[in-house]
Splicing factor YJU2 (Lasiosphaeria hispida), 332 residues
Amino acid sequence: MSERKVLTKYYPPDWDPSLLGRSRGPKQVGPKVQTVRLMAPFSLRCTACGEYMYRGRKFNARKETPVDERYLSVQIYRFYIRCTRCSAEIVFRTDPRNQNYIVEKGAKRNTEPWRRGLEGELEESDEARLDRIEREMAANADDGSNKGYGMLGLGSNSGSGGAGGGSVEERNAMAELEAKTADAKREMAVADALDEIRSRNARIEKAHRDGVEVEVVVPVAPEEEERRRQEQEDAEAARRAFAFQRSHEMLEEDVEVEGAGWVGSSSTAEAGPSSGPDSWRLASIAETKPAPITKPAPVISTDMPPPSFKRQVKKKKDHSALLGIKKKQPLV
């Protein structure tokens, strides 16, 4: 097989390079024409068969560059395409003035709702545009002067100078802008509050419909929440202190009661032999068998003991006894 990219070419033996001449054809007359691949820049309908061709449809088109058609030194291009159904020729060109396209022949552009009302403005002349701008400026100036002087309680602007009138109008414009901004913020806040109330009412109604008891949670400020938390901590600390004091008092009462019982038993034992026929027998029993001594109840501490990190050395086991080895007794 031959190589795809060859470095040298084959020249036959009878080849004569002098026989090659430069061929000059006639220069192209008229606009320059190129074959390009493009997509339809807008939706259109063929006038011959009624076929709809939507935006983005690809076509093999002829691009024509007219020599004498320009707008402010911007070149205008014309494109020739064919209908996808009847092959009728459709011609459209660029419109640099309005940054758009214009259909010239063979099709009709579809209605675009977002471009309604612009057709008249596109065809508006320079004189008509200037007249319209002057009318709008005069109307705005009249409205602003009447509104501004009405707000300030002044009469006409005949006695005031040009600079003073301009400053008054600027102040009025700023005041109107601030008032509009405040109204807009107020309306937004009211709308947000209404939405929150509606959503809360909807949740409550749904819960009542499902048979679930709902508790309305009122938003609490951070300061109020911090105050409540501190009150709860103080109440818990007071409860612990009172419980600890009560436990100590109960322990002291138990010790006092046990001490009183011991004193009463000893007094009866001492007074017993002097009364009754069997006093000698009770005295002997009291001498031989002392009264039982009750131990005080252990003190229950409510607090946990602190951890101890003291090192404890475990005693080693004597494994020699398990193996049957007897240690020799020291001689000394």
Notes: The mean pLDDT is 77. The radius of gyration is 56 Å. The helical segments are 119-122, 126-152, 162-210, 222-271, 279-288. Residues 95 and 101 are 5 Å apart (CA to CA).
